[in-house]
Write a structure and sequence with these properties.
- It is a single chain.
- By secondary structure, the chain is of the alpha/beta class.
- It is built from 17 helices and nine strands.
- α4 crosses α5.
- It is elongated, with a radius of gyration of 26 Å.
- The termini are far apart.
């Protein structure tokens, strides 16, 4: 038997983990943040885990004395098998009693990581089957991605956490010199108020159509990627080529379409070439999904996060993500998607920057300055977001020459600090936002 034929397992870690659950009542809830039934390699270990779950769901906790009854409750009917598992767990409990309690988290992480690796090995057959059996290529790809997503599904650091754990983490950050600064966007007023885009949080950038949401999001993505931080851009409207053209136009400071159509300044080609060179090595990944659903987004984010491709995830735009099933209430659906995005941000410790549409109500008011209630299906969006940016360009409402090129981003919600407004200038041909103070008079 070759090394390739041996599935990666650590049965000792599994036994120690299950034994620790019987010794310390709080252990089961702690390790449930990391691993689940499918992470255990042996069916006997999975059956014991199922019994623990049953004991907890019925108001108790993993208990060696009542384990035989719990095993019967979860479908283990062979009395000889029950007796064998009961004796084994007694040995596991004694065997792990000498271990330090802090080792339990490491056992849980080990069991979970090896479970993911075994499922990755097994998923190859399902992906090959989709390739052979499906006549529809898109459906074959969908099944392959779904199989990969199922295989790499991880619990992540969710669930209950004790004050002892959070204070230990805070102490480690303080003594390690870590700060609460997030990813800097290059917008000074917003960066100062929010301390940047921090992991585990959701920012919503909202505006009316044609105000420059995508342009500003791309500019933020470019700024952060320029700091050697990975960015993933999930586009539900524009294709990757169009997004790239926008980035190049902004970088070069001239419209790329003019150059592609044979016009523009004499040095246009050189400037575009330099811009392409500057952008080429940036860690930005595009994914275009015109009709995506929340389950597909979750699988994509899991894949990106595991590959290290998205410290920042941009979703353009949020209201185009469906639930994947009939809901009936549009406001509920949008709010549920927003909350799910924030949950993903916390699970994978990334920042999610989601674009959204403002309602038409702003166009009917004498003062076009948007407010939180202008968010289309606003209740759920506002509640889920850690911060909300409202972008508007007065000239699109007033048609006044005095407002030409002026734009504002209002920080209308900020869980971590004060509210503020960022005055900007906007150059429509290059879709470039700049600080208003740098505008040439």
């Amino acid at each position: 038997m070759t090394t390739v034929d041996v599935l990666p397992t650590n049965e000792e870690a599994e036994r120690n983990l299950l034994g620790a659950c019987l010794l310390h009542h709080a252990v089961f809830e702690t390790i449930g943040r990391f691993c689940a039934r499918h992470d255990f390699s042996r069916e006997a270990h999975r059956q014991v885990w199922d019994a623990f779950v049953h004991q907890q769901e019925t108001g108790g906790h993993p208990d060696w004395v009542t384990l035989p009854e719990a095993l019967r409750a979860v479908g283990v009917t062979n009395q000889e098998q029950i007796d064998h598992l009961w004796r084994d767990t007694g040995d596991w409990r004694i065997g792990c009693s000498t271990y330090d309690y802090v080792a339990i988290t490491e056992w849980a992480r080990t069991v979970e990581a090896l479970g993911v690796r075994r499922r990755l090995i097994g998923v190859s057959a399902r992906m090959a089957e989709a390739g052979y059996d499906e006549t529809d290529t898109d459906e074959a790809v969908r099944k392959a991605y779904q199989a990969l997503g199922d295989a790499t599904e991880r619990r992540g650091p969710t669930g209950d956490v004790t004050l002892a754990e959070t204070t230990d983490a805070l102490f480690d950050r303080l003594t390690g010199g870590e700060t609460e600064k997030g990813l800097m966007t290059g917008l000074p007023h917003l960066d100062a108020a929010t301390s940047g885009l921090r992991p585990g949080e959701l920012t919503i950038l909202a505006a009316r159509t044609a105000h420059g949401k995508t342009a500003l999001a791309l500019q933020v993505a470019r700024k952060i990627a320029g700091l050697d931080t990975s960015v993933a851009y999930l586009s539900l409207e524009m294709d990757a080529d169009s997004l790239t053209e926008r980035l190049v136009s902004t970088e070069a400071g001239l419209p790329i379409r003019d150059i592609l159509e044979g016009g523009g300044p004499d040095d246009g080609v050189a400037r575009i070439t330099d811009a392409i060179g500057a952008l080429h090595g940036l860690p930005i990944t595009f994914s275009v999904a015109p009709a995506t659903t929340l389950p597909e987004v979750k699988r994509t984010v899991a894949r990106w996060a595991d590959m290290g491709l998205c410290n920042l995830l941009v979703v353009d735009y949020l209201q185009l993500v469906g639930m994947g099933r009939a809901v009936g209430n549009r406001a509920y659906e949008v709010g549920a998607v927003a909350q799910a995005l924030r949950d993903l941000a916390q699970q994978y410790r990334i920042h999610i920057f989601a674009l959204a549409q403002l309602s038409r109500a702003v166009e009917a008011r004498p003062d076009p300055t948007p407010v939180l209630s202008d968010l289309r299906e606003s209740g759920g969006l506002e509640q889920a977001a850690d911060s909300v940016w409202l972008l508007w360009r007065p000239e699109l409402f007033t048609r006044s020459p005095n407002d030409a090129g002026v734009a504002f981003v209002r920080l209308a919600k900020n869980r971590s600090g004060p509210l503020t407004t960022e005055p900007l200038q906007f150059d429509a041909p290059t879709t470039r936002f700049g600080l208003l103070s740098t505008r040439e008079e």
